Amino acid sequence: MVGLLPRFMASRNDEAVEAIECELLGEWGSFSWWLQVFLASACLVSLVGKRFTDRVRRPWKVWFFDMAKQGVQAFMTHLLNIVLSTGFVEWLDSDADPCNWYWINMSLDCTLGVGIIFFLLRSLQFTYRMKCVGRPELARCGHYGDPPQFRIFARQLLDWQALTIV
């Protein structure tokens, strides 16, 4: 009986059961690596396409800053989830493979993680608006000054990465 993601596969005469190992990223140049490249390219193409269908188009520099924050965050989340998933298999004595742990990590990131990041982002914005800190330009996500400044973008990028890693 072969499911969508088979864990075991019976031999033709059902005498031997052979385990199928899950690999998050196989050897360099394997199908899984090319799949990652294809998915990243599809994301980039969809973001460029969306930019041309927006009713109010942001300047290219602002669009690039926003896209870069999304891309770096997605890459870091993906990389950390791969590392954690592989680590959980090594550290914990369980029957789950790295793909199971990756699925659990992504599910938690996309549910509980969104709520936690929302709370942390609002707290950080409040902190930047306080008179003792006095950096209100950093409290407005997606606003990089007029004209857009790389310095504000870099700080927002670092803040966002710190929040998503937490």
Automatic annotation (TrEMBL):
Q: A Gene Ontology CC term for this entry?
A: membrane
Keyword set, alphabetical order: Membrane, Transmembrane, Transmembrane helix
Q: Where are the transmembrane segments?
A: 31-49, 70-89, 101-121
One Pfam annotation reads: STIMATE
**InterPro entries from the xrefs?**
STIMATE/YPL162C
Keyword Cell membrane applies: no
Q: What is this protein called?
A: Transmembrane protein
